[in-house]
What we know:
The chain is α+β, with helices and mostly antiparallel strands. The chain has 2 domains: about 10-90, Phosphorylase Kinase, domain 1 (2-Layer Sandwich), CATH 3.30.200.20; about 95-280 and about 345-365, Transferase(Phosphotransferase), domain 1 (Orthogonal Bundle). The protein contains 12 helices and 9 strands. It has helices spanning about 45-50, 50-65, 95-105, 110-130, 155-165, 180-185, 190-205, 215-225, 240-250, 260-275, 285-290, 340-360, and strands spanning about 10, 10-20, 25-30, 35-45, 75-80, 85-90, 95, 140-145, 150. The strands form 2 sheets. Strands 1-2-3-4-6-5 form a 6-stranded antiparallel β-sheet. A hairpin with a 2-residue loop joins strand 1 (about 10) and strand 2. Helix 4 (about 110-130) runs antiparallel to helix 10 and helix 8 (about 215-225) packs across helix 12 (about 340-360).
Amino acid sequence: MEDLTGRQFGPYQVVAPLGEGGMAAVYKAYQPSVDRYVALKVLPQHFAKDPEFVERFKREARVIAKLQHPHILPVHDFGESDGYTYMAMRFIRGGELSDWIEQNQPLSLPQIRRIISQIGDALDYAHGQGVMHRDVKPSNVLIDERGNCLLTDFGLARMVETSVKLTRTGGILGTPAYMSPEQGMGQGIDHRSDIYALGVILYEMITGRPPYQAETPMAIMIKHIQSPLPPPSKYNPDLPEDVERVILKALAKEKEDRYATAGDLVQALEQATAHPTISTGAERPTVAAIRPPQTQEVETAVPPTPIPQPAPAPEQETETAVPTPTPTPTPAPPRKRRTWLYAVIGTIVVAIIGIALLSLFDGSDDPENIEPFTGEIPP
């Protein structure tokens, strides 16, 4: 996108570029009528030429602008000008949480608790208003001059997703390192996908790394779908067991096994860090340990044959249409959809396109995006 410095967008005078991700650009702009600076996010011109997108943008922007919470970046205004569509937001002299995490490892439990509490409260409020974020990650969390976190870019992933019609073709949008299994499979998502992403941020702050790493976005998504979660205590041996239990629940593969709300996660973490249980060498909690008892289930269709995985003692099992309720010594449990990799592999391939397009709204690629926050986040 061309440099728009010096241009006028409605009441905003573009002063200087702040950052650019893919095709979208963020500028520092001045609004003379109220004597303030704003962060102006400008979309490429071809979006403004799409009447359906413009109408959807206005509708979504109105919803986002109504979100009034101390830890959500306020949207002041939006509109069209000179062939561009723009959104004016509060200008932050701070930085991104992603940079702060990298620069301040290892983090203390009080610092981590404060950050998760602020992001979680913001998500809990937004979910209560019927708004999902869909792309929760550290680079979408800004830190102001006082060390407070502000969640940004609510709903923008949804705007891109519908504008490029990825939903109809089985594509998805998101950031692989923070993407829930159901999101990676292109299936229906709800607020618990945001909770999963918040759990990934918690895992990363506790261990200094995301739970899954691989050479390609596809490989990372597959790990989120099928690979067991590496225990955070593997990378942080001093982690209290109660805190590890919170992380395991937040990152459960099945959304039904996660916290029901972001507020529940925040409360559980506060309780776990208030009087943490120090490991005595006994076996730590696992995903199975925190999972509630299973009710009886019956598969109504035969899952596709899963991709074979090497194992020390391969299971012997045969897929049938519907299990006959005859007594058997040890009936095989119904297989979860996360193992249906053949069924979702096409979705994951198409998803790579979506990941590239999501950079449309991500201004974090440029190190000059926002002035770095180098202060301390108080406990």
